[in-house]
Amino acid sequence: MKTGFTKLAILTTLFVSSLVFAGDYPSEPITVIVPSKAGGSTDRTARMLTEIAEKHNKGYEFVIKNIPGSGGQKGFEAINRAKPDGYTIGLVFTPQLVAHIASKRAKYNLDSFRILGNVAQDPAIVVVPKDSKIKNLGDLAKTAKENTLTVAVNGIGSDDFLAAKAFESKAGVTFNLLPTKGSTEQKAGILGGHVDAAFMNLSQMIAQHKAGDAHIIALLAKERSDKLPDMPTSKEQGYEVYMTATRGLVAPAKVDAATLDKLEAMFAKVMADDEFKAKATKGNIQLLPMTGKEYGEYLKGLQADTQAVYDKAPW
Amino acid sequence: MMEYISIVFQPISLFTILLGTVAGVAIGGMPGLTATMAVGLLVPFTYTMDPTMGLMLLGGIYCGAMYGGSIPAILLNTPGTPAAVATAIEGFPMSQKGKAGLALKVSVVASFVGGSFSVLVLLLFAPLLAQQALKFGPAETFLLALMGLAGIISIADENSSLIKALIAGLLGMIIAVVGTDDMSGSLRYTMGYIELIDGIDFMPALIGLFSMIQMLELAGMRKKHEIDMSALHKKQKSEPMPKGITKHIALGSGTGTVIGVLPGEGATIAAFISYNISKRISRTKELFGKGNPEGIAAAESGNNGCVGGSLVPTLTLGIPGNSVAAALMGAFIIHGMIPGPDLFNEYADRTYPFIISLFIANLVFLGVGLTVAPYLAKIALIPPAILVPVVSAFAVLGSYALNNSVFDIYLMIAFAIFGLLLKKLNFSLEALILGLILGPIAEGGFTQGMIIGKGSPWIFFESPIAKIMWVIILLLLIPPLYSYFKHTSLLKTPDAET
Asked: Could you tell me which residues come within 8 angstroms of residue A253 by beta carbon, excluding any fewer than 6 positions away?
């Protein structure tokens, strides 16, 4: 009798909760896992996005949870492991998301996630010290053939590293690659003239470039950036080397599809919002809206490219 | 300049600075809570605030937390930040003698002088100093880490066992090997644990090795340790600062500011190098390790000197001087203030009030320290039955809160057990933590230096800065080693005769 009653109670609860699910989502705050430290650019992107989302969508509440470490892997794994009830999503970044898959360290793969769309990007650049004789990518390739150039990248497997490797193979040169612990060390190396060049991201060096403390010689993209419209791209300079660090939203793959469609549409609206755009510009964040489908395609392509680099020279 | 000062002296600004600084002192004082964490967590909240107020709040936290770490270090031998380890070496013995009040007073005055001096330098010479700091490359970073590691020798002659201190230091460096090899990206001894990919965080180690072990020892005591109570009841406020301490405060302030300006984790190195130099030049060398206020003065002015110093490259070049400065830089960027010359032209009305507010923050913690210290000193009288569970709970909480990681709690407990064993065998835990923190800095500097030098070690001797650093390293190493061997051979000679 008692057990029967309990069973009934459980069934009712399940039934009711599934009803609540379809209709009243969200009925509780949604956790957004940010796989990096509070205050960093990924974190700022997440906070701006959720702030505007809450403002214009009644009933939505977001909680940011920072899980930094291991090049984002701890956070990526946490999104994958999260209960697939639609109340945990995450803001991931590339190429680390796919680099961990390529190096076989990840317990997830791209199919573990439902891709909700991309939010922002930070294109890769090549930067040299202010008094360097290298003025463009052609000079860089030429000088690298004559001398060994010391080139700083953020750690092994990062976007900078992959971009440098791609440039090496396109230009037929070999750099004396200097892995660092992050953009701080790269900046110190360039500003202090300890290295000949560095592969970095635009947002990290744009202020120093404008102040004349360092020279950006190329944007590794097909199109120029609004942030630095005078800067020629790698495509214009004749080197087909492209790299950008994207930041997009994903959810565990098993979450109810209808719920995620709702979320995806909601975020797409936020991305188009003028207030959000203004905030992003002020916060030095370059937006790159992509739908879930587009971003999914992009990630697949990136994974294949990364895998090729890894297989050639594993780390 | 007057208008900037008037911004700082608005009641709302003063209140913000007061709030930030007091919160900072409390955060620095709790095991496991650090300035980096507090500033990092608060940065997102400041972005709905007025930019200037937000920055002042964070600046207050930074200044307060740097000082706050010394309070539990002195009273309970549980340094709240790694930079306060050197303070604990001298401060805790003073507490046990009932001189906690004086120790706290020395520490707050030294922190104030070091902090204010460094902010003055930041205000007056920032662009000039930043250009100099750029000459400091990976090779020099390696030498700076070596200089810090020379501190192991000065820890050694307290316990007189040089070999054991060196072994402990080496053990710390070996533990630091765990994690990702930055140069190749390969994993070292991570045994499949994703938590170990970034290596072993020194905070759980610090909490385990100091806070937890201290509590275990307290709990394990059969008899309550008698503290000389009489000294506590005296009017400690009127107790004068020890004579000749000015020299050590000045030394620490200078060293701290210079090391703070250099990119990389400065405060711990600064505290240990100041402590070490101060011991070399002290007239009362023999008192070091037994409760010498001179050591506290040097270490505390050293680590607070890093505050202003670390902001020099952060504000002028966008290269953060340490992890707290990096978090602070995030707060500037949120408000569209990208570090560089713009901060001092376009945003001068926010940057200068922020810098000036740091002076007020230093004054606030000086006031807090001086008025509260005599009461705080009584913490040492709390019975272990209450103290042990409370501090242990904080230790667990703090370890977890660092990275939201349960793994770090286990790590902290493992360090406590392992460390207690080492301590009973007379190995120096201070040397171990120094090795653990400075090992990776030395490794990074060495490997990067070798890559930049294209495989030639000559790079470590090339620049004028490197040459000067070698001289300082030798000066720090040779005299104590000489006196150590002289001392041991003197001890051995009579044995040989009998």
From this structure: A84, A111, A112, A113, A114
> B52: which residues sit within 8 A by CB, 6+ positions away?
B7, B13, B349, B350, B353, B354
Residue B65, classified by CB atoms within 10 Å of its CB into exposed (0-12), middle (13-18) or buried (19+), is buried
Residues from chain B contacting residue A38 (CB–CB below 8 Å): 40-41, 43-44, 327
Confidence of residue B241 (pLDDT cuts 50, 70, 90): confident
Q: Provide the shortest C-alpha distance from residue B467 to chain A (in Å).
A: 17
Cα-Cα-Cα-Cα torsion B181, A183, B274, B366, nearest 10 degrees, comes to -130
Inter-chain CB proximity A39 and B43 less than 8 Å: yes
Per-residue tokens: B283: 């007239």
The C-alpha atoms of residue A224 and residue B462 are separated, in whole angstroms, by 41
Distance (Å) from the alpha carbon of B381 to chain A's nearest alpha carbon: 38
The residue length of chain A stands at: 315
Give the right CATH number for A123-219 from 3.30.70.20, 3.40.640.10, 3.40.50.720, 3.40.190.10: 3.40.190.10
In what helix (H) or strand (E) does residue A89 lie, and over which residues does it extend? strand A88-93
Does residue B160 surpass a pLDDT of 70? Answer: no
CB count within 10 Å of CB B259 equals 28
Q: Of A44, A150, A207, which has the smallest distance from its Cβ to B452's Cβ? A: A150
Asked if A152 contacts A180 with a C-beta cutoff of 8 angstroms, the reply is yes
- What local confidence, expressed as pLDDT, does residue A2 receive? 47
Residues in A touching B51 (Cβ below 8 Å)? none
Longest Cα–Cα distance in chain A:
87
CA dihedral B472, B473, B476, B482 (to 10 degrees): -120
B330: chain A residues, CB-CB within 8 Å: 39-40, 43-44
From residue B448, how far is each of B184, B427, B442, B444 by CA, in Å? 12, 32, 10, 6
Contacts of residue B228, defined as CB under 8 A and 6 or more positions apart, other chains included, come to B97, B98
Asked whether this complex has an ipTM greater than 0.95, the answer is no
Instruction: Give residues with Cβ within 8 angstroms of A91, minimum separation 6.
Output: A32, A33, A34, A35, A42, A45, A46, A49, A119, A247, A248, A249
Q: Does an H or E element contain A269, and which?
A: helix A257-271
* A303: its two tokens: 């994974």
Q: Are A89 and A33 in contact (CB under 8 A)?
A: yes
Taking CB atoms and an 8 Å limit, are B318 and A207 in contact across chains? yes
- The count of other CB atoms within 10 Å of the CB of residue B326 is 22
Q: Above 80 in pLDDT, residue A174? A: yes
| Residue pLDDT, tens place only, B128-158 | 888 888 989 999 999 999 999 988 887 776 5
Contact A240, A234 (CB under 8 A): yes
Strands (E), B185-322: 187-188
Distance CA B387, CA B307 (A): 31
Both tokens assigned to B108: 């707050």
Question: What does the domain layout of chain B look like in residue ranges?
Answer: 2-222+243-488
Which tokens in the block code for residue B323? 């992890």
CA B311 to chain centre: 16
Token digits of residue A200: 């970095």
Number of neighbouring beta carbons within 10 Å of residue B235: 8
How far is it, in rounded angstroms, from Cα A114 to Cα A147? Answer: 47
d(CA A25, CA A57): 12
Whether residues A185 and B263 touch (CB distance < 8 A) is answered with yes
pTM value? 0.86
Report the Cα A261 to chain-centroid distance in Å.
22
Q: Which fold has domain A2-121+244-312?
A: D-Maltodextrin-Binding Protein; domain 2 (3.40.190)
